[in-house]
Amino acid sequence: MDFTLAIVVFVVGLFVFVLALALRNRVLFRISARNLLRKKTNTVIVVAGLLIGTAIVTSSYVMGDTLAYIFEESIYDELYTVDEIIGARSGDAGTFEYYPYEYYTNLSVARDAGQLPSVDGLCPIIIESVPVKNNDTMLSEATVNIIGVDPQNYTQFGDFVEFGGGQVDEGTILSQPNAAIINRRLAWKIDAQEGHLLAVYVDNPFIPTAELNITTIVSNDGKANFFNGDNVFISLSTAQQLFGEPGSINLMLVSNVGDMESGVEKTDSAVAEIENAIGTELESLGLIIEPIKAEELEFVEITGELITEVFAIMGTFSIIAGVILVVNIFVMLAEERKPEMGISRALGMKRKHLIQTYLFEGSAYALMASFVGVFVGLLIAYVMIAAFAYVFGAAAFEISFHFEIESLILGFCIGVLITFFTVAIASWVVSRLNIVRAIRAIPEPALTEPTKRFMVGGILLVLLGVIIFRYGMVMMSGAFFMTGPCIILLGAAMLATRWIRPRISYSVASIAILFWILAPIEWMEGLEIGMEMFLLSGLFLVLAAIILLMVNSTSLLKALTRIIGGSRRTLPVMRVALSYPMKRKFRTGMTLSMFALIIFTVTVIAMISSFQKNSVETAYVQQAGGYDIIAFSFPVPNITDGISSNPDLNNRFDEVSSLSFTSVEVYHQGESQDTSQQTRILGADDSFFEDCDFTFYSVMSGYESPDEVWDAVRTNSSLVVVDGSVVTTAYGPAMMFVGFQAEVGDTVVVQKDGLIYNKTIIGILDEVFFFQGLITSREFAINEFGFQFPTTFFFTASDSNIENVRELAKNLEKGFSTSGMQTIVIRDLITDILEIMSSIMGLFQVYLGLGLIVGIAGLGIITVRSVVERRQEIGVMRAIGYKRKMIRRTFIMEITFISLLGIFVGVILGIALSYYMYQDFFAGSASLPNFFTLIPFWNIFLIATVAFIATLLATMSSAFRASRIVPAEALRLKE
Q1: Helix 826-849 / helix 292-336 crossing angle, nearest 10 deg
Q2: Alpha-carbon distance values, 396 to 71, 399, 840 (Å)
Q3: Are 386 and 399 in contact (CB under 8 A)?
Q4: Are 526 and 564 in contact (CB under 8 A)?
Q5: 3-state class of 485 per DSSP?
Q6: Where are the beta strands (DSSP E) in 51-174?
Q7: 767 vs 39: CA distance, rounded Å
Q8: Where are the domains of the chain?
Q9: In 558-569, which positions are buried (b, 16+ CB within 10 angstroms) versus exposed (e)?
Q10: Least confident of 1-10, 119-128, 657-666
Q11: Cα 496 to Cα 509: distance, rounded to the nearest angstrom
């Protein structure tokens, strides 16, 4: 809010200043207003082009608001009135440790004594996740929350609502022996009705520990949805007996004063009060007061900010295109009004007055474009949210469009500032003119040698580039490391024009920048890189390519003339059409940049989408490790016995491997223990080491094959392999919570419960989907950390037909249902994930394609102004024999040339950058796909065609208007 208030105050102050200038110089304001109103069509086109920046910013904020709101609502659904929990999480299975009931009693006494004024609800519970089976329907569910509550205290957290709509007397119900209340979600899964018996499996996966009587089925709303789970509520005494923990609990629920939303505001005071009351008692047991709701809401807020950042960065290309359009517009306005400005200066108007005139006009454009852009941004955000909901499915992603007024204000203000400051800079540039040349409309003479100001600018660019590059090396920042040399090369090219021809110096610098950006990614290994790399790469690639084209425009024209050729009838048209844009190199270059930037971005997204569609096999090799099914369950002592005793599973698997795990803290050797982060130690059985085919992202020198790496890990407890999540990727979004990062050869310190071990990483896997952590032998894991039974299993089917694999996965769940086994058919999951990612990339294409409006608007404005500027030239052409259709063809060919050249540059650069992403995508693949077969030619052709046709439609009217100019009037009159 502070940032929003600051930017609002700044914008208001800025426009108060502009308004004061306007009141003080009313004549200048009237001139600006006249210029604004006399060309209404131009004004509409300009506003349409300028509003895109505001629309992109606003839509980014609104999409962040909407998704954060959806996630926030899910937190309230999950926790309802629970604000804090008191317990100790068990890292091995995500459960909670038990502790004496008396600690609740002590806290309750403190509350009754008035020591907890911020707390209005306190309840001791037991919560465990176990398998259950409906004995009446024989349907089971692997992971169900059994929640033992004290009914008298649990009523402080809200009421149960019977599925039919009536109130539930939970105290009476739960006072009955083995009575259970279940939520509708679980009832639907196991087809339960009131009166059915529910078997609960705690210790033995084959023999039920107890049978509960389903007394009431309640709605999923409110506290019945606790932890968003399939919940069974029983009395606390029943739970203590069921889990063999008499006189114990494993969690206390705390509700703060206020409702489920406002209560979180009391979190800090509630935590402090509890710590003051019995903090030392809790600490002695290792219990913590976990502000669960506040933490999850904070996570949601960060998620919303990340989503906003991703869309804002992706939309920056469109915003930059809008900035270029503003500059282009004011350069053209300056050329049109040059005689007018010259006369004004001759009559005594100072340069600052010219700047103010343009500033008044630009401020009006900024206000109008930003106001309309906010509503366009809302529409874009709504369409994108609806599209995301469709991609993920209505059940998984229920659309609930939401936005904060603050986001609209921010979008408006940022849009205004982008346009305003661009206008201010452009106004300062165009106000520099020679009065005599301006009055007579004489072009500015070409500089024969660089000026001192030009040389100073080159020196400053070189120094700036050196500083940025040096900073990038010191801070290990990929963005600065890449940007520095690009700026150095541009500055050096400016300086070199003093001794060599500008064409040569700028050509060499441009080619060098292209080479530097497209250099192998290995150059940047070890640097921090993220999504900003994509933005900077695109900007410098397009800048270098446009400079290269513009300084070699003469050669380009000659080449095009020879290639295209033409008859006597078409050659005059073609030469005029191709030569005019190159006479206005700055304007043409800016227009090409608008087109190229957007097409570049859309092309890269299309390429990534194509990689995803065609990388199922590669992803399968990297993520599956040669297995067909992965399963997660409660600990199973001997899974092979369970398989051999089941006729649906016996002799149907070639390989069965398993992993056990425990949570640990890890940090790099030589660093402070304060930098430690949580990860897992994964204990693999011998079958895993012998049978898995997981591919490696990198291997420490000295190991020639994966088999050597696995043998070393199996026989040496100080060596480990880690999954691919420790590796950062180029051109990707920054991680929301950066986890444990490492490279091969690193030695890390692993600690748990006071035990400390040093482990050297000798290999990093490509796998990131199914398990994360440090892999070691189970024997070493048992000796060091004491855990034994596996919970993650890998299966290779004897018959790898996909239908057979799916059947086996179902049979595994049935056969081990009492162990809570959940299976995943690896190929199906990878295919689904890649399809969703491909759909998301398609949505990004549409989102980024909005920037094409900027390019089209820019060409429309340029064409309109071109007709006015060339009125006399057109008259001369008509007088010497050019027919109307020849004039029309000249303009159409000119538009075609500019748009197709921009599209061509964007496509080529996009494909070039994608080549290096392709190498990352398919790293570790047994057979690298042919890059050219992955290029989505049809997709790119469709995008280019739509952009080209839209450009022709936007500019065709100007071409027809030019062809209707009467020669006699054109030679006499001049606008």
Answers
A1: 40
A2: 12, 10, 15
A3: yes
A4: no
A5: helix
A6: 84-87, 89-90, 95-96, 99-100, 119-134, 140-149
A7: 61
A8: 1-79+296-442, 84-290, 449-547, 565-619+829-975, 620-828
A9: eeeeeeeeeeee
A10: 1-10
A11: 10
Q: State the Cα–Cα distance between residues 261 and 80, nearest whole angstrom.
A: 9
- Tokens encoding 208: 């039920």
Q: Helix 478-496 vs helix 502-517: angle between axes, to the nearest 10 degrees? A: 170
Q: What is residue 216's predicted lDDT score, i.e. its pLDDT?
A: 92
Lowest mean pLDDT among 97-106, 572-581, 745-754: 572-581
Instruction: Record the tokens describing residue 745, joined without a space.
Output: 């050869």
pLDDT given for residue 734 in this prediction: 40
- Our CA angle for 49, 53, 59, nearest 5°, is 125
Stretch (H or E) spanning 631: strand 629-632
Looking up tokens 């027919």 gives: 883
Judge contact between 847 and 311, C-beta under 8 A. Answer: yes
Beta bridge partner(s), residue 662: 681
pLDDT attached to residue 972? 62
CA 47 to CA 307: how far, in whole Å?
27
Backbone angles phi, psi at 895, to 5 degrees: -60, -45
Structure confidence by residue, pLDDT tens digits, 735-774: 433 457 888 889 999 988 778 899 999 999 988 888 888 9
Phi-psi region of 235 (alpha: psi -120 to 50; beta: other; left: phi over 0): beta
| Distances, alpha carbon 969 to alpha carbons 335, 871, 874, 888, 891, in Å | 22, 9, 11, 18, 20
d(CA 838, CA 830): 12
pLDDT tens-digit map of 479-532: 888 889 999 999 999 998 888 888 899 999 999 999 888 876 555 666 666 677
505 in Cβ contact with 468 (< 8 Å):
no
Q: Which helix (H) or strand (E) holds 342?
A: helix 338-346
On average, the pLDDT of the chain sits at: 82
Give residue 282's Cα distance to chain centre.
Answer: 40
* Distance (Å, whole) CA 865 – CA 527: 47
Pair 458, 422: CB distance under 8 Å: no
Are 920 and 616 contacting, i.e. CB atoms less than 8 angstroms apart? no
**pLDDT exceeding 70 applies to what percent of the chain?**
89
216 forms beta bridges with: 181
- The phi and psi torsions of 140 (rounded to 5 degrees) equal -125, 160
Q: What are phi and psi of 561, to 5 degrees?
A: -60, -40
Tell me the H-state helices in 393-451.
Answer: 405-430, 435-439
Structure tokens of 112? 């009754």
Distance CA 375, CA 353 (A): 34
194/214 Cα distance (integer angstroms): 5
CA distance 901 to 585: 14
Token pair in block for residue 345: 């200066």
pTM of the model: 0.73
Ramachandran angles phi, psi of 270, nearest 5°: -65, -45
End-to-end CA distance of the chain: 50
Cα–Cα nearest to 538, from 599, 479, 481, 597? 597
Strands (E), 635-773: 653-668, 677-684, 696-699, 719-722, 747-752, 755-765
**CB burial class (10 A; 0-12, 13-18, 19+) of residue 790?**
buried
212 closest CA partner among 193, 222, 198: 198
Q: Residue written as tokens 């892999």?
A: 775
> What are the φ and ψ backbone dihedral angles of 670, each rounded to 5 degrees?
95, -15
Task: Kindly list the distances between the CA atom of residue 711 and the CA atoms of 149, 341, 764, 794, 970, in Å, as whole numbers in the listed order.
Answer: 50, 81, 15, 19, 87
Give the span between the Cα atoms of 592 and 545, in whole angstroms. 10
pLDDT at residue 448, as a whole number: 60
User: Residues 618-655, buried b or exposed e (16+ Cβ, 10 A)?
Assistant: bbbbbbbbbbbbbbbbbebeebeebbeeeeebeebbeb
Q: How far apart are CA 302 and CA 125, in angstroms?
A: 31
Whole-angstrom Cα distance, residue 94 to residue 85?
14
Residues 206-226 pLDDT 10s: 678 889 999 999 998 889 988
